Amino acid sequence: MARKTKAEAQKTRQLLIEAAIEQFAARGVASTTLTDIADAASLTRGAVYWHFSSKAEIFNAIWQEQCPLREIIRGLLSQGEEDKPLFILRELFVTALQYIARDCRQRTLLQILYHKCEFEPGMISEYEIRERIGFNYENVRQILQRCIATGAISAQINIDTALIVFHGFFCGLIKNWLMSPERLDLYQQAPALVDNILSTLPPAPAPHRFYNAAS
Prior knowledge:
Elements lengths: L1 H26 L6 H7 L4 H7 L3 H10 L4 H4 L12 H18 L1 H12 L10 H8 L3 H13 L9 H21 L6 H13 L17
Helix pairs in contact: 1-2, 1-4, 1-7, 6-9, 6-11, 7-10
């Protein structure tokens, strides 16, 4: 019986989290009340307070329990091409954008983060959310280092600068797309968009060729 009660409590907690996501996306975090969340979940305010002491605590739970995008898409990536790190980087970026484009819950969460959130005391910071759910930039750094080692890009690249450029590109792209998703088919355009940002990486110099006087 105790096990069932625990399971039911977890189910109610998750119901409140999903209702909060829905309300935050529709109303904005600041304009959403605990009553709004309770009503959306068809529960009482008492049920809300049983699980969460405040709206900020619900907000934090949403992001703390959200699986990072890098983990979500891991199973969607191909397992080969380890000797082609630039291909791996391209696939990583394309797959992530296409997942965001087709997954309603992921889009809703990003809509809250980019357009519906006014951060207040007690709430997890935007930086922490990005670090928690976004790309593992240390992993991207390692892929770029392998690109240099295999001659796919120039050794003169400033990797820190490249990471800043990637971050700005993807954050700006997603933020603007969420404002008017009908203006861009993100799923279909993801490969072309990624190819454009990867084209900013400096290519490795072509090997020198020596010619004799007769050639």
